[in-house]
Amino acid sequence: MNTRTVHTVHPSPLGDLLLTGTVSGAGVTLTSLTLPGQRGAPTVRPEDRDDAPFAEAHRQLDAYFAGRRIRFDLPLAPAGTAFQRAVWRALDDIPCGTTTTYGELAARLGVPRSELRAVGRALGANPVLLVRPCHRVIGADGSMRGYAGGVENKVWLLTHEGALQPALV
């Protein structure tokens, strides 16, 4: 099968999101979605930009940021270990507008408390932010623990989704 790796940029309230994917006869499969300044963002070549295959991803992201979509339905192929992929799949079960804790997520996965840091590391390695909503995982004390896209973006996303109340400034 003939595939090629492409990318696009999606403007958002958080800045330009970088989406990468592989294109085949079946369409594009999303391999990453990163926020501006995110650590571990893929390096892309300008000549590999192709916006057309990402039309559905653009449509769904626009609907999300407009408050008309709470779940993404895109083909995904994030690279990771079996454990990481299991943690990332579990994120799909956290409803929009809610949060869970690292400990609750670990318990749901059958991961002992002694391995809680492994769950945190897997979340930190999530290559498809927003689409797999690791921003919905918070500390047991309600704190906004690390987020690869930046804690300020995590707070913005949770506020946008209604899980946090807007701050009165």
Quick recap:
This protein is an alpha+beta fold.
Describe the structure.
With 169 residues, the chain is of the alpha+beta class. The chain is 28% helix and 16% strand. The protein is built from 5 helices and 5 strands, in the order βββααβααβα. The protein has helices at residues 55-65, 82-91, 102-109, 116-124, 151-160, and strands spanning 4-10, 17-24, 27-34, 100-101, 137-138. The strands form 2 sheets. A 3-stranded antiparallel β-sheet has the order 1-2-3, with no helix packed on it. A hairpin with a 2-residue loop joins strand 2 and strand 3 (27-34). Helix 2 (82-91) crosses helix 3 (102-109). The longest helix is centred in the middle third of the chain and has 11 residues, at 55-65. It is globular and about 45 Å long.
Shape: globular
Low-confidence stretches: none
What can be said about the biggest beta sheet? 3 strands, antiparallel
Percent of residues in helical segments?
Answer: 25-40%
Strand content: 15-25%
Alpha carbon gap, first and last residue: 55 Å
- Strand count: 5
Q: What are the secondary-structure elements, in order, as H or E?
A: EEEHHEHHEH
Spatial strand arrangement across the major sheet: 1-2-3
Name the descriptors.
three-stranded antiparallel beta sheet; globular; two-stranded parallel ribbon
SSE map:
Blueprint: E1 4-10, E2 17-24, E3 27-34, H1 55-65, H2 82-91, E4 100-101, H3 102-109, H4 116-124, E5 137-138, H5 151-160
Parallel strand pairs: 4-5
Antiparallel strand pairs: 1-2, 2-3
Helix pairs in contact: 2-3
